[in-house]
């Protein structure tokens, strides 16, 4: 889609609101040109200080074992090697200070997964360090390992206790149901595959101070972790991140490991140390999206409306808790997706296995929750031989009734009753469904499938305390403006949007505003840039900071012109009072000369949210973001290969701050979701070794997998809650639209199986990701 073609549906309405010179327009990403030209700095591009050393990890070869000893003599004898760093070199606490405190910084007594880091080799060059790391010998006694959710459930092996959420009486509702269906299914994990791998560069400064360059989503947490490991106060550690080459959740906590390891090595040798993981090592060391296993028992009436549901979700958290509690909670909060579940019983198990510690990944458990109910509704529709969209529409949250979630939050802003029928029309769903059936009736080899699925995604960190942000706005005497906020840029366009917000608050052209690197010495205690809330939180904080500066200037001008400060407007680079119109810069210079403060901080906390962590009830989300996608696929029943033929998306970003960036997020999120459900398969061998640890064996979508027919339209209504610029968060919600790919694939498989004489209404068991092999399995053409 050409960016110039992006139009806001109902643009007339937004034009009626006050003209916004920067917000609402498709300004290019602030780094787009530099990135394309190769001039944008990532950490590995920073000039290296003289004396910089390089670290490489020594990894456990077994999934679970007792460490008897480490022999580094061969490595130490290799050219360029300075030494090794072991747990005994840690001056502070030897565990990462995560909430659960269950992960060793460097494993010393036990190893818990293949790839766990036990030591670092430090050398003159990256290659010397990596080569030598292979010559460090570990003496490990293997212990029995738990390598699947099923084994973990059987062994009652959990990183955190199970969580139950119940409403009504599911048991009784199931007993009384007209129809009843049971099923089991699984979804796989997903590697983040950020283009820039994990990296940190630790610089020891004078008097015990530190400067850490870290590619990470949560500089404040990295600062805390480094200080904790070094046994020094946080004020001595400065963490900076100009940008990441993608994070996708994979750098929310686990970038902290690189930073701590690099800092420990730098401390031991008194030199700057850079640690950049090789791609294969990145796969082996870091956690991924949580795989899930589900069991359900659903009751429904003849129209397909759900009357009772029991759902068990068990997730593989890996060897430590990391963010698994919050991820599994978000899955519980999203297993209703857009549908009212009256009598429900949900149980969520957080399993401990001897695998990488799974972590945040776009959607943060939301996709794993949403797919549960979408699979169940797809199964119900096929059982009843009803159109799946009709079944979905019948189960939607109501407007005035049937609108309270299983966690007791009232759904006040539901727009799916209008949005879904609009997409149904614009995608020509009914006609195409008939065409697909006609095609399938006469084509025995290639089968098609079509599906529409909606999304309703809760916006706010479920951990209420993270929903706060700070920013600084500095106006210099030449009229230029510098902004710093607690968020991080990972390609999502946060800095561009924040600059747009500030430009409009001050009424100056966008090129007057520059956003600088995330830096713990500017805005302290900032939350992770995550939960899609970066712009909501930091955009508002920056807006408030700019507002204070503007108020200072308005008061100054009102004194000059003897008018009320409220009568002074800031627009188009001018400061306009009822008496005089002056250029922005002139006002800034005069204000400076009169000792008016030209900079300010701003602070924002999300209103209205609260919830009880033990029962998971309350209002965890400020609002919901909505959307829907219509996807058509084809499968080759002889090979199992599949193709996405056409995608139509209608998505709700509120009043878009930047339509080009929002459409980019929608397309990118969808395609990443498509990868999760189609080709991105992680395979661990029976010894717990990840066999798919490079692009040769792990396949993310390529441009050629994106169909030419990819239409994205934006829903024209502003956020009904008072959010920055009337916008809604966009980073994660579109990921879940790709569940339409999976449901379309199951429909195509169903069409093929009906040909083969399969029982009518049979459950289509298609493992996710729907690789060619798994499609053949679902067709009953291969065993297992
Ligand atoms: N877009 C790009 N280009 N790169 C990324 O790493 N991360 C996603 C999403 N979009 C990501 C991205 C994730 S997981 C989240 S939570 C949000 O961006 C975070 O940024 P935001 O809150 O500013 O939207
Ligand atoms: N989303 C993303 N990251 C998080 C969350 C969340 O809800 N809670 C804690 N970290
Ligand atoms: Mo995104 S998974 O909340 O970093």
TrEMBL record:
Top-rank taxon: Bacteria
Gene3D superfamilies named among the record's database cross-references: Aldehyde oxidase/xanthine dehydrogenase, a/b hammerhead (3.90.1170.50), Aldehyde oxidase/xanthine dehydrogenase, molybdopterin binding domain (3.30.365.10)
GO molecular function, a single term: 2 iron, 2 sulfur cluster binding
InterPro entries in UniProt: Ald_Oxase/Xan_DH_a/b, Ald_Oxase/Xan_DH_a/b_sf, Ald_Oxase/xanthine_DH-like, AldOxase/xan_DH_MoCoBD1, AldOxase/xan_DH_MoCoBD2, AldOxase/xan_DH_Mopterin-bd_sf, Xanthine_DH_Mopterin-bd_su
Span list, region Disordered: 1-28
One Pfam family cited in the UniProt record for this chain: MoCoBD_1
Spans traversing the lipid bilayer: none
Domain Aldehyde oxidase/xanthine dehydrogenase a/b hammerhead: from-to ranges: 37-144
Cofactor list: Mo-molybdopterin; Mo-molybdopterin cytosine dinucleotide; FAD; [2Fe-2S] cluster
Keyword Metal-binding carried by entry: yes
Keyword terms of this UniProt record: 2Fe-2S, Iron, Iron-sulfur, Metal-binding, Molybdenum, Oxidoreductase
Family: Belongs to the xanthine dehydrogenase family.
Protein name: Xanthine dehydrogenase molybdopterin binding subunit
């Amino acid at each position: 889609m050409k960016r110039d073609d992006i139009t806001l549906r109902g643009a007339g309405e937004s034009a009626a609101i006050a003209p916004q010179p920067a917000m609402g327009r498709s300004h290019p990403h602030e780094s787009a040109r530099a990135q394309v030209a190769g001039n944008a700095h990532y950490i590995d591009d920073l000039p290296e200080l003289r004396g910089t050393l390089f670290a490489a990890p020594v990894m456990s070869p077994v999934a679970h074992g007792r460490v008897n000893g480490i022999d580094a003599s061969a490595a130490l004898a290799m050219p360029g090697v300075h030494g090794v760093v072991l747990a005994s070199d840690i001056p502070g606490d030897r565990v990462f200070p995560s909430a659960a405190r269950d992960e060793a910084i460097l494993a010393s007594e036990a190893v818990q997964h293949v790839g766990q880091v036990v030591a670092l080799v430090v050398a003159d060059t990256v290659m010397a360090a990596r080569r030598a790391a292979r010559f460090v010998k570990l003496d490990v006694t293997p212990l029995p390992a738990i390598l699947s959710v099923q084994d973990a459930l059987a062994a009652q092996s959990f990183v955190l206790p199970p969580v139950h959420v119940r409403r009504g009486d599911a048991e009784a509702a199931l007993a009384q149901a007209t129809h009843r269906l049971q099923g089991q299914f699984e979804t796989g994990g997903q590697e983040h595959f950020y283009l820039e791998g994990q990296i940190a560069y630790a610089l020891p400064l004078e008097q015990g101070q530190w400067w850490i360059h870290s590619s990470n989503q949560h500089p404040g947490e990295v600062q805390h972790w480094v200080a904790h490991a070094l046994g020094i106060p946080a004020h001595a550690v400065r963490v900076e991140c100009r940008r990441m080459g993608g994070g996708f959740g994979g750098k929310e906590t686990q970038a902290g490991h690189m930073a701590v390891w690099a800092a420990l090595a730098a401390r031991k040798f008194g030199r700057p140390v850079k640690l950049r993981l090789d791609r294969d090592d990145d796969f082996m060391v870091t956690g991924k999206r949580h795989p899930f296993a589900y069991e359900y028992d659903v009751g429904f009436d003849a129209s397909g409306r759900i009357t009772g549901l029991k759902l068990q979700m068990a997730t593989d958290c890996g060897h430590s808790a990391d963010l698994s509690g919050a991820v599994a909670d978000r899955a519980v909060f999203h297993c209703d997706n857009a549908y009212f579940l009256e009598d429900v019983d949900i149980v969520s198990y957080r399993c401990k296995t001897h695998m990488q510690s799974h972590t945040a990944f776009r959607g943060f458990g939301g996709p794993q929750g949403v797919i549960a109910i979408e699979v169940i509704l797809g199964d119900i529709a096929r059982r009843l031989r009803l159109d799946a969209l009709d079944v979905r529409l019948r189960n939607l949250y109501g407007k005035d009734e049937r609108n309270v979630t299983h966690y007791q939050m009232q759904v006040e802003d539901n727009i799916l009753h209008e949005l879904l029928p609009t997409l149904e029309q614009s995608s020509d769903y009914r006609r195409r469904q008939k065409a697909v059936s006609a095609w399938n009736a006469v084509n025995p080899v290639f089968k098609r499938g079509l599906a529409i699925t909606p999304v309703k995604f809760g916006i706010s960190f479920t951990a209420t305390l993270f929903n706060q942000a700070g920013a600084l706005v500095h106006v210099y005497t030449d009229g230029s403006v510098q902004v710093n906020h607690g968020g991080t840029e990972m390609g999502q366009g946060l800095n561009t949007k924040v600059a747009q917000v500030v430009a409009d608050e001050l009424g100056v052209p966008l090129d007057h505003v520059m956003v600088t690197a995330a830096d713990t010495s500017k805005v302290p205690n900032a939350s992770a840039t995550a939960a899609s809330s970066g712009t909501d939180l930091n955009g508002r904080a920056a807006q408030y900071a700019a507002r204070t500066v503007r108020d200072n200037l308005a008061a100054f001008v009102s004194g000059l012109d003897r008018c009320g400060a409220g009568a002074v407007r800031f627009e188009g680079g001018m400061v306009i009072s009822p008496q005089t119109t002056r250029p922005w810069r002139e006002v800034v210079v005069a204000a400076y000369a009169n000792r008016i403060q030209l900079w300010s901080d701003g602070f924002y906390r999300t209103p209205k949210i609260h919830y009880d962590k033990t029962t998971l009830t309350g209002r965890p989300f400020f609002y919901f973001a909505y959307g829907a996608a219509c996807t058509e696929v084809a499968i080759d029943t002889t090979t199992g290969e599949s193709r996405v033929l056409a995608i139509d998306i209608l998505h709700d970003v509120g009043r878009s701050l930047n339509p080009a960036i929002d459409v980019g997020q929608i397309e990118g999120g969808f395609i990443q979701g498509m990868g999760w459900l189609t080709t991105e398969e992680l395979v661990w061998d029976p010894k717990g070794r990840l066999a798919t640890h490079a692009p040769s064996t792990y396949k993310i979508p390529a441009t050629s997998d994106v169909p030419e027919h990819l239409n994205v339209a934006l829903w024209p209504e502003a956020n009904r809650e008072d959010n920055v610029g009337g916008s809604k968060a966009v980073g994660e919600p579109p990921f879940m639209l790709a569940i339409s790919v999976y449901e379309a694939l199951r429909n195509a498989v169903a069409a093929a199986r009906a040909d083969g004489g399969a029982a009518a209404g049979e459950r289509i068991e298609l493992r996710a990701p729907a690789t060619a092999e798994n499609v053949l399995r679902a067709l009953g053409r291969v065993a297992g």
